[in-house]
Write a structure and sequence with these properties.
The protein is mainly alpha-helical. It has five helices and no strands.
Length: 129
């Protein structure tokens, strides 16, 4: 299996684990575990997209935000979805501050929306690899 496919499968698997935990009854431990799954899912997806851009489009990106902007330029995201992805990137960056209750709650409250956008984005690549 080639590198791009491996990264795609990693992203799909990570997203599946995040979707699964969103169905678990809320506790602080579940919240914290959900945020952890969001962190690694976000990383897996943006790194897949980075590899896709490099291999298939010849575009080198070095950050999640530049990656999402390039994916917009290629038509895989709408402007509204791109804004959501940029906000999601900010939330990912804030995860190092989840020891603050308000930050943890804020991130957790946004995760269903983030899962929705990540799911739509990943599914667009399902048949083109």
């Amino acid at each position: 299996m080639e590198r791009l496919e491996i990264k795609y499968q990693d992203a799909v698997k990570a997203l599946g684990t995040l979707k699964d935990i969103l169905d678990v009854t809320f506790t602080e431990i579940v919240r914290d575990a959900t945020i952890q799954r969001f962190e690694y899912t976000f990383e897996a997806i943006w790194k897949f997209l980075k590899e896709y851009l490099k291999q298939k489009e010849g575009v080198i990106v070095n950050s999640p935000k530049s990656c999402f902007r390039e994916v917009l330029a290629l038509g895989f995201l709408t402007e509204e979805e791109t804004v959501q992805c940029l906000e999601m990137t900010d939330s990912r960056n804030d995860t190092s501050h989840t020891y603050k209750e308000a930050v943890a709650q804020s991130i957790y409250s946004k995760l269903k929306g983030y899962v929705s956008i990540m799911d739509r984005l990943v599914s667009k690549f399902e048949n083109i690899l």
